[in-house]
């Protein structure tokens, strides 16, 4: 599928779906000094070429906000305590308005994908956002159509921000067999 960048919004943070983690998995918060763990997960899903690039990006985006990261970045651990997933309940100025909550950098290591971990991770992140914000957004791309389907089920809606967005959402309607725009 053609890769087109997309934005989705959730106009309120009420009635967040809840899902429990499967047995032997748990969620916990990031601790200062664990940026290498974040980078490893993001490299595993192809977001960065290598750990050095991941760490550089982490420092650029989050390095000045260690307290926020401790409150807003989540890790999934398996029964051995190995971190195998992450997301950040972040924030950002959106459409010229006050800061919105932002679901940011969702990733589950490929060895653990398909084990029903993304929904409970997203639920936990949205719960965090609901303590700070009234609305949320996220950015994604057409190639993440399975994640987009989940976001739609969580009440996120397509937002047309540029001309090729409409093409992207039409591609997704075909792929997911559901009406979106």
From TrEMBL:
<protein>
    <submittedName>
        <fullName>GNAT superfamily N-acetyltransferase</fullName>
    </submittedName>
</protein>
<dbReference type="InterPro" id="IPR016181">
    <property type="entry name" value="Acyl_CoA_acyltransferase"/>
</dbReference>
<dbReference type="InterPro" id="IPR000182">
    <property type="entry name" value="GNAT_dom"/>
</dbReference>
<dbReference type="Pfam" id="PF00583">
    <property type="entry name" value="Acetyltransf_1"/>
</dbReference>
<feature type="domain" description="N-acetyltransferase">
    <location>
        <begin position="25"/>
        <end position="181"/>
    </location>
</feature>
